[in-house]
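Students often ask why we bother encoding 3D structure as a string. The short answer is that it lets us treat folding as translation between two languages. Here is a chain of 91 residues written in the first language.
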Amino acid sequence: MLEDRLLILKFKRGSRTAFQRIYEKYESDLRTLAGNLLDDKATAEDIVHDVFASFVESAKRFRLSVNKKLFDFYVACIFQFANLDAEITIE
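And here it is in the second language, the structure alphabet:
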């Protein structure tokens, strides 16, 4: 969690290396999760790409203010982008 907070701080300050590390750390797990949830590899890849693209676009506004792993945030994003009817709670 501490590493994630540091990566986010660096990313918000414009570090491409920090974003690359976040991407490398979570992309595969997110793609697998999305693929399992959607049962469609191509759509899962598109959604994960969209999640990371949105993350880049919101760099200055992004705040990780909950005591959860960054992964949980991405899972919520996958549900949102996939328009799945599920209630997501991040504590």
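Translate back mentally: The chain has four helices and no strands. Keep this in mind for the problem set.
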